[in-house]
Specification:
Layout (H helix, E strand, L loop, with lengths): L2 H15 L20 H15 L3 H4 L9 H9 L3
Helix pairs in contact: 1-2
Length: about 80
């Protein structure tokens, strides 16, 4: 499974579990407009760390928080 597929799957699962209305995922979608809240993002990051073996927010000192869904995917894709 590709990194992108794993990220999409986690966004969708967490949205359902947290009873959030997830916006259509596209690279241009601003994370603030995704329909998810901070708890949802924390769950996604934790689950991706379990699945991929790293947390890109802990690995690099100069990580900028992603603004769009595409930025989020690239953050994980660039560290695989």
């Amino acid at each position: 499974m590709s990194v992108r597929s794993m990220v999409v799957t986690q966004f969708e699962r967490v949205a359902v579990e947290q009873h959030r209305m997830l916006a259509r995922l596209s690279d241009e979608l601003r994370l603030l407009d995704s329909g998810l809240d901070s708890l949802s993002f924390a769950l996604i990051v934790a689950r991706l760390e379990d699945a991929l073996g790293f947390d890109p927010f802990d690995v690099a000192e100069d990580v900028k928080f992603p603004v769009t869904f595409g930025d989020f995917v690239r953050l994980y894709d660039n560290h695989k």
